[in-house]
Design brief:
DNA polymerase, domain 1; alpha/beta; about 325 residues; 13 helices; Rossmann fold; globular; seven-stranded mixed beta sheet
Length: about 325
């Protein structure tokens, strides 16, 4: 399988691995970004992924540097526990490439894509949780409508939810093409549209089953607190909901207020101490792929890269143990 990491040159330039150091790839996937960082001078890579299949591919692709790479089957939201188990205090840079990977999209039986008929699964970690088919089978019509509207930003969410409930009353919805057909018939057709009518619903269900937005802000705070002064965090988001969380959390960490002033998110308060800022925003606007990369790799079209640099801890804030 040919793996084309998105915004690879931009990530390497942002993280500055040429002087060596330990870098954490929090969503290592097939290892494309990790390989580029090692080639550019990183001394060590700690790679996390909750997809065991992806880790096996990463282990193969990173074999030339096997003595400098540690791979861990873990969710990036558990970053503090993972680093503690590895006896790691500070790190020299971190990357989080969010969203569904090429491997997951291109493997039909994972159920992420409606390009092939496959079981309706969509779990990034197939060793835990329930497949989408199980959630779709028992969710109420209002719950389905809320999920599709909130996570898919689909204006026909109520109509789609109603169609799903009616269809499953006749036959369980257990296949990707089966669900896609239900959604397409529910969405009014008004001439040519650039994306398939089922796209937003599939995105919403993937976010829902994988809890992609749950704890993203907490993760960003946790990984920032692990960066040494001058080290950088690079985050790639692929849809507006993820990017919004990344943007607002990094802006909060770069503000002059206390972390407790991120009051819109009560989950961050237990991580707060001292006065901000904890980071400097390297990118005030996201970096996006150029025309050449988009032509070479169409999936890069929606990628947005944001970068922040750790600054001197404020008085009273020491972060993780050295």
């Amino acid at each position: 399988m040919v793996h084309v990491p998105v915004l690879c040159a931009e990530v390497v330039q942002a993280l500055q691995p040429e002087h060596g150091g330990l870098f954490v790839d929090c969503t290592v996937g097939l290892g494309g970004h990790a390989a580029a960082l090692l080639q550019a001078g990183a001394s060590r890579i700690l790679g996390l992924d909750r997809d065991a299949q992806a880790l096996e591919q990463a282990r193969f692709h990173l074999a030339p540097w096997e003595d400098r790479v540690t791979l861990v089957h873990a969710d990036y939201r558990d970053i503090d526990a993972v680093l503690d188990r590895q006896s790691i205090g500070r790190i020299d840079g971190a990357l989080a490439d969010l969203g569904v990977s090429s491997l997951q999209l291109d493997t039909p039986d994972r159920g992420f894509s409606f390009s092939h008929d496959a079981p309706l699964d969509m779990r990034m970690d197939r060793s835990s949780g329930e497949p989408v088919a199980a959630l779709v089978a028992r969710a109420s019509e209002p719950e389905l409508a809320d999920v599709i509207f909130q996570y898919g930003e689909e204006r026909f969410a109520r109509r789609i939810a109603r169609a799903i409930v009616r269809a499953r009353a006749t036959q369980p919805i257990e296949r990707t093409l089966q669900l896609a057909d239900v959604v397409r018939r529910a969405v009014p057709r008004r001439g040519y549209t650039r994306i398939d009518p089922a796209t937003r619903t599939f995105q919403a269900l993937s976010i829902w089953v994988n809890r992609e937005l749950d704890g993203l802000d907490r993760f960003l705070v946790a990984i920032v607190r692990r960066l040494r002064v001058g080290a950088r965090l690079a985050v790639i988001a692929f849809h507006s909901l993820e990017d919004r969380v990344v943007k607002h959390t990094l802006r909060g960490l770069a503000s002059k207020h206390t972390l407790q002033d991120l009051a819109s998110n009560h989950a961050l308060r237990d991580l707060a101490s001292g006065q901000g800022p904890l980071v400097r925003l390297v990118t005030t606007r996201p970096i996006v792929a150029g025309d050449e990369e988009v032509q070479r790799n169409p999936r890069s079209r929606s990628a947005k890269l944001r970068v922040a640099e750790r600054v001197m801890p404020p008085t009273g804030e020491t972060g993780a143990a050295e």
